[in-house]
């Protein structure tokens, strides 16, 4: 039970949650820049028109990685990172999304970031789209519901592939692409926005058939865009590798009643394998037709689409994993929110400060399920514990709870490797504190590095190490032997 010698240890961020500088050097807003802060009791909302520049929209400043990236990457290097996952904010390269010529200042910024990584021997793992659809494309074209956006994304992808072909080897197309299979993904994942006013980004109300059809059509367009990106990357530099990224959902039956077992199985297939099959196998899964019929979904699939999906399959599979849930056909059971999903609480598991159930063994279950279905290298690119971090009397943060969470998950990774899973890397989510995607808070902290900023946007932005910083440094140095 050992990790491979070349295992890629590191951490992960997203531009809209850490970068800031949302209107600097030619950048225009993305959908994320129109989403308000929130908390566990107040849902984040999308605002059609923004006319303010404060922490009401936390992505505007975030943790100011835009100006502090050298300091942050130096800290990542001190921990021993082999890889750093980050995203390119599309609107830094093409501010509106449909321009013919890129914004040079944006190209220069990411070149500096990648060069800084290379200086320390850190491999960038770059996500092309992490909830950062240009707001112009959302307002003018209807976001990913419009087939034209495939071409705009293709132009963007080819531009950055050519620009960084000697600096970036590993690419991901769409972050947690499967959230579009859930109504929670419409705004953030698909750039499908309301025409005016405010709207909750996670809406649990009954959804119309038309809205559901929009989401799945947008998802089909993203599949095509991803396949094009895979083919373009191979042409530009055959050494580049392009992967998918799935929000990992592990669901157990609440009871051993056959109906609960069937419902849990359907949840796993629809949440994980609908998108995984298209991106890894190059085809919609057999259960897709039943799912479309039951939900009155009619996709507009053009001639050549299915052939493109078959040709543009990814070379590795990455995913986020934070928690698991259960499924039941008992109408008296109520579901609670988790990472972009709803599920029934498992009575055998403890929960985080935000109610996400902690299930390390579920990670091993998921790894085995996915690897035995796809047989391509896997990478965990998001995993971590969102928690309240407070300074002790000695002026330090003793986050033993985070260390314990990660230790248990890494132990299960070892067991999965012993099971035969080809696991090639692990990038913990929010290696430095950043804005929470689900609640828009700063106090929901994941990092090994504390950032002095509160929920109202106040603070010095100074960085300081938590106990988990030195712990993770030793984990990497020992290649997972010392936990």
Automatic annotation (TrEMBL):
**MF-aspect GO terms:** 6-phospho-beta-glucosidase activity
Q: Does the keyword Ion transport apply?
A: no
EC nos: 3.2.1.86
Q: Which domain of life is it from?
A: Bacteria
Keywords, comma-separated and alphabetical: Glycosidase, Hydrolase
Q: Which Pfam families does the annotation name? A: Glyco_hydro_1 (PF00232)
Entry-linked InterPro entries: GH, GH_1_N_CS, Glyco_hydro_1
Q: Does the keyword Hydrolase apply?
A: yes
Class of the enzyme per the UniProt entry, highest EC level = hydrolase
Family membership, please give it.
Belongs to the glycosyl hydrolase 1 family.
This one is known as: 6-phospho-beta-glucosidase
Lineage of the organism: Bacteria, Bacillati, Bacillota, Bacilli, Lactobacillales
